[in-house]
Design goal:
The chain is of the alpha+beta class. The chain is 32% helix and 31% strand. The strands form eight sheets. It has a five-stranded mixed β-sheet. It has a four-stranded antiparallel β-sheet with strand order 17-18-16-19, covered by helices on one side. Strand 2 and strand 3 form a beta hairpin. Helix 1 packs parallel to helix 6, helix 4 packs antiparallel against helix 5 and helix 5 packs across helix 8. The C terminus is likely disordered.
C-alpha cells in the first residue's frame, strides 16, 4: 500500500506541507512550471533551498502581483491569508496591516462564491478542484463558528485569499500526483501562549485553528508561539486518514518543507512516502441502542450519516431491558471525524449516549476504473491484496442496463462482465 506519512512535530502550515510534498516528486522544474500555469490571477510560485538546524529542504514561496504578503493578523474572518503567514512558518516579511497596499493590494473582500468562481477557472482536474473547495469551506466554517457567522457570510481579504488558495491548491495538486492509498500524520504541535493581531491578543492555538483541529491529537510543546495555522489544520483534517505512529514502511522518498523562523529544533514538516503492508488502518466504531424510533427515522439517520462521510453504517435488532425490542446502530468513521460523527448521531437519533471503540482492520486495496464495453462506459470496482483480486461492475451502470433490458441486476452484471451488453436481443 502506498502510504504518505506527515511528521508534524513542528506544526503545519500550508506552504510547509506543499514544500514537503514538492520534494517527494521527480522533476521539480516541471512541477513548478505546472503550478505557475494553474491560472490563479497574479500568483507566482518559486522554490528555494532553506537550511534549518543543518538540514536542507525546500521552501515553496508564493507571491501575489509581485509581492509576498505577511500581515500582523493571525486570526479573523477577513484575514485567512494574514493568519497563514504570520506564524514563523511561512514568509518572513512582516508589516503592519494598517500600512497602505499599493496597486493590486487595495483592500477588497471576497467570499466563498468568489473563491468557487476562481477555482472553477483553474487548469486542474475536477477532483483537485473539489478538494480545494472542501478545504476552503472547512476554513470558512471554522471562521464562521468563531465569529458567529454562517460560512457563506465569511469574507476574506482579496490578496490574502489568493495566497491561501495558492497554498491549498499546491497541496491538493501534489497529493493528486502522489496518489497515496493512505495518509497518516503524527500528533500536531500547536505551540502555546498568545499572539498579537490587529484585533487584539489571541490564545494559541488561535480559535479558527482550534476548531479545525477538533478530533485530531494535538499538544502544545515547549516552543512558545503559533506552530499550526488554519490552512495547515484544514489540509490535515481533509487528507489525513488517521493520526498516530508511522506504520512499518519501506521508504522511497523523504521531503522537508521548511518554515521561516529559527528554533532550537528543525522547523519543518517531514513527508515520508513508501510502501506499507496495509495492516495499520484504524477506524473508530461508534455504537448506540435505539428503542423509540421508527424504521423510517432510523433509515433517514443512516442515510444522513453516510452522506456526511461515515465509512459504514449498519443496524442489528437487539433485545433491551424490560423486554423491549430495539436496534443497535453502529457507525464506522475515521478517527479524525469521530467527534463530528458523534454529534450527527445525537442530531439524527434519540440516543442519550454513544460508545466508542478503536478498531484495527484488515482491508483490500480498492480502486475504480472506467472501461469501454459494448454497452458504453462502465465503472468497475477493483479490490486486491493478500493474494486476492476481485472485480465488480458499479451498481448504477448495472442497474441502468437492467432497466433498459427488463432483466435482473444479476443478469445485467453477467452481461457486462461477459462483454455482451450491447446485444439488445440477448437476455
Amino acid at each position: 500500500m502506498k502510504t504518505l506519512y506527515l511528521d508534524c512535530g513542528m506544526g503545519a502550515a500550508g506552504d510547509m506541507l506543499a514544500s514537503a510534498l514538492f520534494e517527494l516528486l521527480p522533476d521539480p522544474d516541471a512541477l513548478l512550471a505546472e503550478l505557475n500555469a494553474l491560472g490563479i490571477p497574479g500568483v507566482r510560485y518559486a522554490r528555494e533551498s532553506a537550511c534549518r538546524c543543518g538540514i536542507t529542504g525546500t521552501r515553496l514561496r508564493v507571491s501575489v502581483f509581485g509581492r509576498e504578503e505577511a500581515c500582523d493578523c493571525p486570526d479573523g474572518q477577513a484575514h485567512i491569508h494574514d493568519h497563514e503567514h504570520d506564524h514563523g512558518h511561512d514568509h518572513g516579511h512582516d508589516h503592519d496591516h494598517d500600512h497602505g497596499h499599493e496597486d493590486h493590494h487595495e483592500h477588497s473582500h471576497t467570499g466563498l462564491k468568489e473563491v468557487e468562481s476562481l477555482v472553477a477557472g483553474m487548469a486542474v482536474g475536477a477532483r483537485v478542484k473539489e478538494n480545494i473547495l472542501s478545504v476552503y469551506r472547512a476554513i470558512a466554517a471554522a471562521e464562521g463558528r468563531v465569529h458567529g457567522l454562517p460560512a457563506d457570510r465569511v469574507h476574506f481579504h482579496e490578496v490574502g485569499s489568493l495566497d491561501a488558495v495558492a497554498d491549498i491548491t499546491a497541496v491538493c495538486l501534489l497529493i493528486e500526483k502522489i496518489a497515496p492509498d493512505e495518509v497518516i500524520a503524527s500528533p500536531v504541535r500547536t505551540g502555546y501562549g498568545q499572539i498579537r493581531c490587529a484585533h487584539g491578543i489571541l490564545p494559541v492555538p488561535a480559535p479558527a485553528t482550534a476548531e479545525l483541529l477538533r478530533g485530531i491529537p494535538i499538544y502544545g510543546g515547549e516552543f512558545a508561539g503559533e506552530m499550526c495555522t488554519p490552512t495547515g489544520a484544514a489540509l490535515l483534517s481533509h487528507f489525513v486518514t488517521r493520526f498516530g505512529e508511522m506504520s512499518i514502511m519501506a521508504t522511497e522518498a523523504i521531503g522537508y518543507g521548511m518554515g521561516t523562523r529559527e528554533f532550537p529544533a528543525a522547523n519543518c514538516v517531514r513527508a515520508f512516502l513508501g510502501e506499507t503492508d496495509g495492516q495499520g488502518d484504524c477506524v473508530t466504531e461508534l455504537c448506540c441502542n435505539l428503542d423509540d424510533m421508527t424504521g423510517e427515522e432510523i433509515g433517514f439517520a443512516t442515510e444522513a450519516l453516510m452522506n456526511a462521510g461515515a465509512l459504514d453504517v449498519y443496524t442489528v435488532p437487539v433485545g433491551m431491558k424490560k423486554g423491549r425490542p430495539g436496534i443497535l446502530l453502529t457507525v464506522l468513521c475515521r478517527q479524525a471525524a469521530r467527534e463530528e460523527t458523534a454529534r450527527l448521531i445525537f442530531r439524527y437519533t434519540d440516543t442519550l449516549g454513544i460508545r466508542e471503540r478503536l478498531c484495527r482492520r484488515y482491508r483490500l486495496d480498492r480502486r475504480e476504473e472506467i472501461r469501454h464495453t459494448p454497452a458504453g462506459e462502465v465503472s468497475v470496482k477493483i479490490s486486491e491484496g493478500y493474494g486476492i483480486r476481485r472485480e465488480k461492475t458499479g451498481y448504477e451502470d448495472a442497474a441502468r442496463l437492467a432497466r433498459e433490458r427488463g432483466i435482473s441486476l444479476r443478469e445485467a452484471r453477467k452481461l457486462l462482465d461477459s462483454g455482451a451488453g450491447a446485444d439488445p436481443g440477448k437476455k
